[in-house]
């Protein structure tokens, strides 16, 4: 039986990679639905529809949806108030999502509410929502999978050896993006997504994001984690076991391996590294040595809403820098250090209302305290 796949944020790069993979197996999967989450990508989305030929699509605006219907003669929903109708009409078996931003929480929860299995291509919905999405997945009995090498490694190991992990080691490495000049990517030089990617690597956010996500998803305390400097980005995760053994996996950014394992009957791909000698050098580091990691650790220690504020503060700071609202490229660090001292942002009981309330409060604080003030037009002086 062919499984029907709905792809959310199909205009994004990771979604496009997923589409390419599943399209190679037409006897097993059909891309039956697409959702574009960026209204500026209308032309790209129309081209995507022509190539993939889904049964149903979604576009954020009414005008764009009407163009799609008129030109391509396909059923198209629009406006997020129609998202639940779109989900029901899709009749899909699996939802692939590369949704980002705080609004992704609502869409992911709506997807789970329709009892759809999920495959997440990024961690933002989890980091934004704490355990809300995780608990809802358990309540509804649906499956959730993550296409990151760190999550894939963790999932495969802990499935059979849950109690044998003594330490989880996340690795730092040098990235080619770290030497890039952010000014070359700020508006209007490039898209916001490209700017965020550069800032992400410059601030070594992969460590902080996986630390927070693992803590939520696997209920791991901070004492379970260690951090090492690695000479290669291919070393995604290391486990120290209670019996004294150390195990790790090598991954050369090959997402196809993960898709194969999850979706193509555990089909194994040949490991090209087996015939190679791999030079691995590791050096233990403290979380305090990397600013973004230090702040994530402090947020987890405080608990409550502070880990959620971490992602909110980072995204809002990145957007402010991108749109040239501030010259402070380290705005996130300054902002979050202030937030950690502000008890008015703390709440132990987290729900959707709490998350969006503190997000709005944080936006107001950034706008009024940290950013350039909008220049007001000089008032005319009346002559008497």
Describe this protein's structure.
The chain is α/β, with parallel strands linked by helices and 384 residues long. It has a domain at 3-146: Rossmann fold (3-Layer(aba) Sandwich). 45% of the residues lie in helices and 16% in strands. It is built from 15 helices and twelve strands. The strands form two sheets. It has a seven-stranded parallel sheet with strand order 4-3-2-1-5-6-7, with helices on both faces. It has a five-stranded mixed sheet with strand order 11-10-8-9-12, with helices on one face. Strand 3 (56-59), helix 3 (62-72) and strand 4 form a beta-alpha-beta unit. It is globular, with a radius of gyration of 22 Å. Residues 376-384 have low confidence and may be disordered.
Short structural summary:
With 384 residues, this protein is α/β, with parallel strands linked by helices.
Helix and strand topology:
Elements: E1 3-8, H1 13-23, E2 29-35, H2 42-52, E3 56-59, H3 62-72, E4 75-78, H4 83-90, E5 94-97, H5 104-113, E6 117-120, H6 124-129, H7 132-140, E7 144-146, H8 149-161, E8 165-172, H9 192-202, H10 205-218, E9 225-230, E10 235-241, E11 246-250, H11 255-263, E12 282-285, H12 291-302, H13 306-322, H14 331-340, H15 352-370
Helix pairs in contact: 5-7, 9-13, 10-12, 12-13, 12-14, 13-14, 13-15
């Amino acid at each position: 039986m062919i499984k029907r796949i709905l792809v959310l944020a199909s205009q994004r790069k990771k979604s496009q990679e997923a589409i390419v993979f599943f399209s190679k197996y037409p006897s097993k999967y059909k891309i039956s639905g697409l959702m574009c989450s960026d209204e500026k990508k209308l032309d790209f989305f129309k081209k995507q529809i022509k190539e993939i030929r889904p049964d149903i699509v979604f576009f954020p605006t009414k005008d764009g949806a009407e163009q799609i219907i008129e030109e391509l003669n396909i059923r198209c929903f629009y406006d997020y108030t129609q998202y639940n109708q779109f989900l029901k009409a899709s009749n899909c078996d699996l939802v692939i999502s590369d949704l980002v931003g705080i609004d992704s929480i609502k869409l992911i929860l709506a997807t789970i509410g329709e009892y759809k299995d999920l495959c997440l291509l990024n961690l933002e919905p989890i980091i934004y929502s704490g355990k809300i999405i995780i608990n809802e997945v358990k309540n509804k009995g649906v499956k959730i999978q993550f296409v990151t090498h760190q999550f894939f490694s963790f999932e495969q190991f802990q499935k059979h050896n849950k109690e044998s992990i003594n330490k989880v080691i996340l690795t730092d490495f040098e990235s080619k993006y770290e030497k890039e000049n952010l000014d070359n990517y700020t508006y209007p030089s490039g898209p916001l997504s490209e700017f965020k990617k550069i800032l992400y690597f410059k601030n070594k956010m992969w460590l902080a994001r996986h630390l927070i996500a693992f803590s939520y998803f696997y209920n791991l305390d901070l004492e379970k984690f260690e951090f090492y400097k690695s000479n290669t980005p291919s070393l995604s995760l290391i486990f120290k076991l209670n019996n004294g053994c150390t195990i790790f996996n090598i991954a050369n950014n090959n997402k196809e391996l993960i898709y194969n394992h999850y979706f193509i009957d555990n089909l194994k791909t040949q490991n090209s590294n087996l015939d190679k000698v791999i030079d691995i050098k590791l050096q233990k580091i403290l979380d305090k040595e990397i600013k973004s990691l230090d702040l994530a650790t402090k947020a987890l220690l405080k608990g409550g809403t502070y880990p959620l504020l971490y992602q909110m503060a980072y995204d809002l700071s990145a957007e402010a820098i991108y749109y040239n609202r501030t010259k402070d490229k380290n705005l996130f660090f300054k902002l979050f250090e202030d937030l950690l001292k502000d008890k008015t942002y703390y709440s132990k009981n987290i729900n959707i209302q709490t998350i969006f309330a503190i997000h709005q409060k944080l936006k107001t604080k950034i706008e009024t305290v940290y950013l350039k003030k909008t220049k007001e037009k000089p008032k005319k002086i009346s002559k008497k």
